Amino acid sequence: MRQIHYQEIVDRVKELCQEANYDLGQDVIQAFEQAVQTESSDIGKGVLTQLIENANIASENRVPMCQDTGVSVFIVKLGQDCHIAGGSLYQAINEGVKQGYEEGDLRYSIVDDPLSRKNTGDNTPAVIHIELTEGDKLEIQMTAKGGGAENMSALKMLTPSDGLEGVKNFILDTVKHAGPNACPPLVVGIGIGGNFESCAYLAKKSLFKPVGERHREREIAQLEEELIQSINALGIGPQGLGGNTTTLDVKIETAPCHIAALPVAVNLNCHASRHKHLVI
Ligand code: SF4
Q: Cα of 146 to ligand 1 centre, how many Å?
């Protein structure tokens, strides 16, 4: 049994939170650069150029790329031959978030109760999903998920008779309804199948994949490409100011589901599409 110490996880998670907020991934920056070439509107081109400049300034000056530093969401793959020594994995991740946000001058965006709404003062608790895997490694994926895009996300329990057309219509309606409020250009994460809660998780999980990477199955990859075109034809554009870059990418994950069900979840991510990854 391999041992990983609590403190190592705290330190690495702390760095991960700061990197996520300061350093936009090269996959997203490349997608901005490509979009500058293909964007039809001059205002849209200008917004995309500013987003690249903003990402560069954030990285060089170690400041957050957006004032909304998000909910810290983790997908953790814990090898079954790995033991966390000195404390619990949940505590270690939350302590890393606390230190990362406090020391990194990142905004605290979490309230302790959805109705009484007192800020917890350290951006905890994080949302932590743990998957048990084979082996002795600990893989941690983190995103700082912005509130605007999350608020415009949606889930619908379609029925099999709605079919693929129903799925596509729901996705397009969700993006249309979001308009500028989700801070486009977006990354659109889609879950199809599973049940009510696992469908939402599929959509969230898809957002951790690199922008520009197509699904491993050809049919789903084609659907992703078709949706990119349809969403960009909506004309919402960068920051909602018009243009043909409403989304940088569409990611789909699917899962088996009940014979009577066709759940679809659309989890929108804004242009600050911040996802980081480490393996211990
Ligand atoms: S949704 Fe994204 S870009 Fe918009 S304010 Fe929140 S983090 Fe920033």
A: 5
Residue 99: which CATH number?
Answer: 3.30.360
CA of 170 to the centre of ligand 1 (A): 23
DSSP state of 234: T
Q: Tell which one of 24, 32, 66, 107 to mutate to probe ligand 1, the residue whose CB is within 8 A of the most ligand atoms.
A: 66
Are both 88 and 223 inside the same structural domain?
A: no
Same structural domain for residues 246 and 135? no
How many structural domains is the chain composed of? 2
Cα separation, 84 vs 92, whole angstroms: 9
Co-location of 253 and 172 in the same domain: yes
Taking residue 133's Cβ as centre, other Cβ atoms within 10 Å add up to 16
Strand order in the sheet with 71-79: 127-133, 71-79, 138-145, 275-279
The string of pLDDT tens digits covering residues 77-128 is 999 999 999 999 999 999 999 999 999 999 999 999 999 999 999 999 999 9
Ligand 1 residue neighbourhood (C-beta within 6 Å):
66, 68, 70, 146-149, 183, 270-272
- Domain with 94, as residue range(s), is 2-20+65-145
User: For atom 6 of ligand 1, which residue has the closest CA?
Assistant: 146
Q: Whose CA is nearest to atom 1 of ligand 1?
A: 148
Contacts of 46 (CB under 8 A, 6+ apart): none
The last residue of a domain, from among 97, 129, 145: 145
Q: What is the pLDDT of residues 159-189, one digit of tens each?
A: 999 999 999 999 999 999 999 999 999 999 9
Residue 185 lies in a domain: yes
